[in-house]
User: Fold these one by one.
Assistant:
Number 1:
Amino acid sequence: MAHADAVVILPAAGKGTRLGQAKQYLELGGVPVMARAARAAAACQEVAAIVVACPAGDEEKVRALLEAHGAGAKLHAVVAGGAERADSVRNALAAAPAGVELVAVHDAARPFASPALFTRVLEAARTHGAALAAIPCTDTVKKAEGTAVAGTLDRRTLWLAQTPQAFRIPVLRAGYERAGNGASSFTDEASLVEASGGRVELVPGEKENFKVTDADDLARARARVELPAAVGFGLDVHAYEEGRRCILGGIEFPGEVGLLGHSDADAALHAIMDAILGGAGLGDIGLHFPDTDDRFRGADSGRLLEEVVRRAAAAGFAVLNVDLTIAAARPKIGPRRDEMRVRIAELLGVPAARVNVKATTTEGLGFVGRKEGLAAQAVVLLARC
Ligand code: CTP
Ligand code: MG
């Protein structure tokens, strides 16, 4: 087994200006981008320690976040980063443990590097002093002056730099020393070594090891790890109560006995809401609209369903279809089934054909048969949007 003699530096102190938010904290499939990067580094057997550079003031939060996501095992230090990426790396390098031979710098914003890639780049650095993961250029590359083409470059000589970039520690330290204050303007570590004429070895990178830079990258990252669809199930039961209006499936049944509940007691819409919240991983109605909250007394469940659809959308889910079953001795659903479908579809913002309503009287059995109350069950399919 290889000797663990490398430290990995994760620069994670950026602002995410191009994405519009600090991407290192964003969760992909429940795991923050930076924790994915740290996990890949920790899984590499040559790696003895990890040092993270984060926004000043976030040190404790970052440590807790990495530990909570199984990425804390080899964490040696969390330090404050600097104004530029190279400043962040320099701060982290100063906190590297004594006794390590190699350093690999890896963007916290690259969640999908494999541990084997770390090994390959570290081994190349052990041999050559400096190495980086890079992808051979497959597109023809134009040089431009403004929007006019000023030439075509020979793509056989062009590689796109990724991270990890690895170095024998004195090689990187010397690169920083030579560059002095000018180091801040270098956008990767290999160029610090190149600038002094040092040899840097190219190691074939991984196409999936892309950096999350803009919204398209984030969508690509999400599509890679998150389910494209989710199913949800909801169940609700309400007792009959004389003197209350009967609202079911978003429509009123005049003259029918109503249902007991804190809101308008529309069991059908409640089952659909729970199904949507369940599929989106957002808990249940009680969590979102507590019956201890007076704002929801007598609430129109149609409005609540619209709010649930909005909250699901904010969590990245859209309703594809709904199948609703109402178990009730009364009111009679059949004659108003289509009206109910249309109303539910309207509340969900989907075509009526995506909503199905079924009814059963349960053959006179159970609490439904005894006309004590009714039950509604719903299944929904959600698409990630
Ligand atoms: N980084 C850093 N310190 C900085 C700037 C960047 O540690 N002062 C880190 C980022 O957190 C990221 C990596 O360097 O993990 C690559 O940088 P980039 O993709 O440019 O991220 P941001 O700087 O956050 O994004 P933007 O340039 O769009 O603001
Ligand atoms: Mg940046």
Note: The longest strand covers residues 229-241.
Number 2:
Amino acid sequence: MAANKKLLVLPGDGIGPEVMDEVKRMIDWLNGQRRVTFDIDERLVGGSAIDAEGAPLSDATVERAQGADATLLGAVGGPKWDDLPFEQKPERGLLRLRKEMELFANLRPAICFDALISASTLKPEVVSGLDIMIVRELTGGIYFGHPRGIEDLPDGQRQGINTQVYTTNEIRRVAAVAFELARKRQSRVCSSEKANVMESGVLWRQEVTKLHGEVYEDVALTHMYADNAAMQLVRNPRQFDVIVTDNLFGDILSDEASMLTGSLGMLPSASLGAADSSGRRKALYEPVHGSAPDIAGQGKANPIAMVMSFAMCLRYSFDMTEDADLVENAVTKILGEGCRTGDIAGLGDKVLSTREMGEAIRKAMAELAA
Ligand code: NAD
């Protein structure tokens, strides 16, 4: 049997622990099948860590995250901690985790399940079968560049400044993630920038092209200006496989792409860091949604975003393609059979609780694996 996989589990606040419970049960099932053995280390993050440990993320938890093969996070935050100073808020725990782990590549898939096609704002024929991945550079670019600030001008006006800066290495490492992902998908990468009006875009295009020629010629590479990419995402999103782009354009394009698929309760994400000498990348997997205080503790949360984040973990951190497929196929199956939580239910649909939805997915996994 393969060596144990070290997984750090951080359920967090609000619906975080509820949706994480369904993943923990799934892990128990996988362990029971002896498909693989996970060593689970569970710790606090966010508001629950503030209450118990005095800070949203303890040094000990950071250390565990650095040593784990992958980290799964539920969600953080809630009204109880809203009035704390900015530096002490639950969300700081998440930001610190991303920073300390140097997670520079954010992966957001946009998959349209046929059974939920009516939840998309686009026509069924445009989104049917949609499966794209947006890779956003997460630690550089205009959100971090200097100079920045707001200054007074001699004529009495004020001036706001932000600076888009990218180095060769920052571009190459995120492009490498995109090329490697594409090799596990349809082997197509579209790199997006504004090389027509920005020098940083010119450099981005040059470096991506250079890296492609050096290492990834087996992957098809195209380039697209970011404004055109925004338009093409709603015109014909299926033309894309993997899109790689900078922090600013990625922020916008990944939100746009996520709307193609419907509910927040369906959207997983991954954030990856640099590979070490053994090829292992630091990695954090989490749903896109927050702690949803309005439905927390009521068994109403949709666990699919968390479950699909775990599937990404199996695929990208552990190379367990078969098990990742099993999880994703089980989700497709139960949606096809009409299983719905409140957020994705139509008029007249029977609404399942978080636990019932988790159980339905695990049952489908058992059936598909039989
Ligand atoms: P949210 O994502 O928590 O909720 C937005 C809406 O979507 C709510 O109506 C909620 O009920 C619904 N929703 C979200 N996830 C759902 C799910 N799995 N199933 C069914 N419905 C779901 O965003 P918000 O309300 O703006 O923020 C609430 C708290 O979460 C805040 O404290 C915020 O700072 C925090 N937050 C955390 C993260 C994170 O941990 N990554 C991300 C966003 C917001």
Note: Residues 15, 19, 75-78, 91, 94, 264-265, 286, 289-295, 301-302, 305, 343 surround nicotinamide-adenine-dinucleotide (CB under 6 Å).
Number 3:
Amino acid sequence: MRKILITGGAGFIGSHVIRRFVNKYENYQIYNLDKLTYAGNLENLVDIESKKNYTFIKGDICNEYFINELFKKHKFDSVIHLAAESHVDRSITDPLAFAKTNILGTMVLLNAFKEIWKSNLEDKLFYHVSTDEVYGSLGETGFFTEDTPYDPNSPYSASKASSDHFVRAYGETYNIPYVISNCSNNYGANQFPEKLIPLFINNIINNRELPVYGDGNYTRDWLYVIDHAIAIDLVFHKGENKETYNIGGFNEWRNIDLVKVLCKQMDLKLKRQEGESEKLIVYVKDRPGHDLRYAIDASKINKELNWSPSVTFEEGLSLTIDWYLTNKVWMSNVVKGDYKTYYNKQYK
Ligand code: NAD
Ligand code: TYD
């Protein structure tokens, strides 16, 4: 019987990872630790919340006493760590919150793990889920490999880079078995509408402007969230100790081209005239320190763990739009309260 602590399981990616593990591995006990910040939402997990092998724990990874007691009580043999502050724009307005959760929170977990297992580390694993943004920005060509030097530009990516370094340092210094994966931009069901795709889907539904930063020529590599969850499952079970795996969609889009494809699909699904949603596009002030291009070379995970994305971007995007169109109550609950304040401040 494995006892796995998954942090941040009420968030976007975490909820897909929780669902996969709880449904697929009935002999594992899965504990979801989440503070339920604005990004955490237990509605993401209603379909599995009463499963016997699932337990939700509300708590803060930065609370050292609480985390130490939790590890003493449950003796988790593995951690899959996703809890984080995750939005670049918020990191620009509140960088300290990112340092606290992403760096300090990761260290608190590493320390607790080290303290309960000491030298008894066989069959234990600390899996740290990270981002391709730690590598900084690419020019027009090239790809991030696992050997690309870290060069983060935003407080978000700097805090994630730092947390990656601490995981490696604990591996070297205290022999904690670890794996790290660095993934490209995810999209799919349950993503909070502060990130590009769900924000724009929601705005198109409501006939609101689509605020494209700068000239719209920034490029991202997009991966369907379920494919990320499948990759996490593989890395968790088959990844080599102390290795890093880059995960990406082999799927680069300039923001403006992606937004146009999204608008086309939305016009069809909403039975609007072709071109109607595109009229909502407005170019707005750029994000400071905006990374020009991210592109992942995912050949290591492809060759070593036999992973590749299961859906094309058009299929994944269509599934994502359908999810938002059928889950309007989810969206209306999410945009209640603080969201309006955030939105008005960010896009004033
Ligand atoms: P998210 O913002 O949707 O969810 C984060 C979750 O962490 C929320 O449920 C939140 O309540 C929880 N959380 C935040 N602070 C916490 C704390 N102090 N204690 C306990 N829980 C806390 O994020 P996401 O997009 O699902 O990303 C999950 C992880 O994957 C992050 O580590 C992120 O850096 C990484 N990642 C994200 C992407 C992406 O495109 N979204 C890509 C690559 C890697
Ligand atoms: P985002 O979803 O915030 O992810 P990240 O910054 O982690 O890549 O943004 C994706 C791209 O879309 C990025 O280049 C910024 C851009 N963007 C906009 O043009 N307008 C927006 O309102 C948002 C949220 C993002």
Note: The chain has two domains: 2-187+221-247, 196-219+252-292+311-338.
Number 4:
Amino acid sequence: MTQKRVFNFSAGPSTLPVPVLEKVASQMLNYKDSGMSVMEMSHRSSSYLEIFNETKDLLKKVMNIPDNYKILFIQGGATQQFSTIPLNLMKNGKADYIVTGAFSKKSAQEAAKFGDVHIAYNGSDNNFKHIPTQDELDIREGTSYVHICANNTIFGTEWKYVPDTKGAPIVADMSSNILSKPINVADYGMIYAGAQKNMGIAGCGIVIVREDLINEHKDNIPVLMEYNTIAENDSMYNTPPTFSIYVLGLVLKWIDEMGGLEVMQKKNEEKAKLLYDYLDTTDFYKTHSDKDNRSLMNVTFTCPNKDLDAQFVKESVIAGMTNLKGHRSVGGIRASIYNAMPLEGVQTLVDFMKKFEAENK
Ligand code: PMP
């Protein structure tokens, strides 16, 4: 079965670990002698609650989440959080946003509907190839929170440091780099991500939020958008995305058994190095991101012209790879090399790139 799989470089939903898919397949018709699939279970049943609690415990363990943080399973993807964050966390009507790509721009635009949003840095002038240094940030004193996008999926840039935000909590969109490396959760007021890249499949997202930021009820926001309500009901105010949470649990188990996030980081650095080292030896391909800000997860580059970009994508399919076409705002090629992409996939890509260069120089 696995021999027919392609190397899938999709930015999301993306490739999953084969052992996770095999486990899902083996449990599909009859989960642990329950006589039914996980999809058919009541979210209040003991079988499902075991899955749910195990997933939450594993996330806490794998990410080393401190006790004073709540873990929420949410729906509506990361995009829904663009609205939910200001509704809950814009305590004094002010928030600062660092705009390093399409998603942080969207989140800032959404927040501006609800209060005074200050753009502390805007990378649109350089088509988002750069992550600002501390000196380039203009953060206001007394702002409610500072929002960042930790990894810019479209542009292929990633934060390599935690900015000083003058005491304001950092709210970080980690949709495309969560679980790729260890982080210190306590550096953030809130972390959020959609599951469909490094965490599993579309349907659920997670919010990890410091308790003291959500300790009061707000009467004037929709009930399912209030973190306090979701936390008080342990993410079961209504039916959660049960299957997606189950897959997240299996992905976390896979990570844990491999040795956790330190091991993931080592593997991810090895894969990214293979690709970037080659890109640095050639003038044929040009990387989009500044060298210091390169993403470990999304590698973006262009061929010498648009025709060759298209030809590259076409021929890469014949070579056993898929979803390498870059996003229209950058063009060229994007290789998303999340946790589940094996080194062999990246080696196949680099071998293909060398051949393509030799044939088209
Ligand atoms: N933020 C980032 C960094 C993303 O990559 C994406 C999706 N690609 C989103 C937000 C939006 O996520 P969703 O589609 O889950 O709403």
Note: The chain has nine helices and 14 strands.
